[in-house]
Automatic annotation (TrEMBL):
It comes from the Bacteria. This is STAS domain-containing protein. InterPro entries: STAS_dom_sf.
Length: 60
């Protein structure tokens, strides 16, 4: 399992969320836990990758 801590990040554009999603999809058997994401990150993930279970978003 990998952790990404984003508490100091105020904004991530779609390209940044895409990079995160592609990284998670290419992990052999792991997951990515995103801690303290910007408020819009979960919405972008749900919009473009609704069934991507390799990413877990921990609330802010």
């Amino acid at each position: 399992m990998s952790y990404v801590e984003l508490s100091d990040v105020g904004f991530v554009d779609v390209a940044g969320v895409t990079a995160l999603a592609i990284t998670a999809m290419n992990l052999p058997d792991g997951r990515v836990v995103v801690e303290h994401p910007p408020p819009h990150l979960p919405r972008v993930l749900e919009m473009f990758w609704p069934n991507l279970h390799q990413i877990e978003v921990a609330p802010r």
